[in-house]
Backbone:
């Protein structure tokens, strides 16, 4: 898909590097506990369930539902000035109710967004070499 804006690019850090590499490959990657299997988002060194320090990265389906959303009407960054109104959504992934990503919805008018609507991931070019995980109606 085409580049979206001149918003600042994400800085892969804090253990989320594999998430961002996955986006650039067109794969939605989530960290999972290697002992008990609990998914973790945001990525973190220790499992909140079993305290294991071991983890692995799993390609997930990219399917989920809109958990919540808001419409931004006031530009909070100079790059947003020409973009408002735009949506910011929380998408709950099918694999685990605790996997809730903050993202944007594409391919749907803001007024047509509904909580609970099924969505699937799409990877949108942000700038050369950087793709962002966004979601569209499924
Ligand atoms: Zn665990």
Residues:
């Amino acid at each position: 898909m085409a580049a979206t804006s001149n918003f600042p690019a994400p800085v892969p850090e804090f253990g989320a590097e594999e998430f961002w590499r996955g986006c650039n490959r067109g794969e939605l990657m989530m960290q999972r506990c290697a002992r008990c299997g609990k998914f973790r988002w945001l990525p973190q060194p220790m499992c909140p369930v079993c305290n294991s320090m071991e983890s692995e990265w799993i390609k997930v389906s990219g399917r989920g539902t809109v958990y919540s959303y808001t419409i931004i009407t006031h530009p909070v960054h100079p790059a947003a000035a020409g973009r408002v109104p735009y949506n910011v959504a929380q998408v709950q992934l099918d694999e685990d109710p605790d996997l809730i990503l903050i993202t944007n919805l594409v391919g749907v008018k803001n007024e047509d967004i509904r909580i609970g609507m099924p969505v699937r991931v799409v990877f949108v070019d942000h700038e050369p070499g950087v793709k962002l995980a966004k979601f569209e109606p499924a």
In short: The pocket of zinc ion is lined by residues 33, 35-36, 38, 47, 49-50, 52 (CB under 6 Å). Residues 64 and 93 are 4 Å apart (CA to CA). The helical segments are 17-25. The chain has one domain: 17-137.
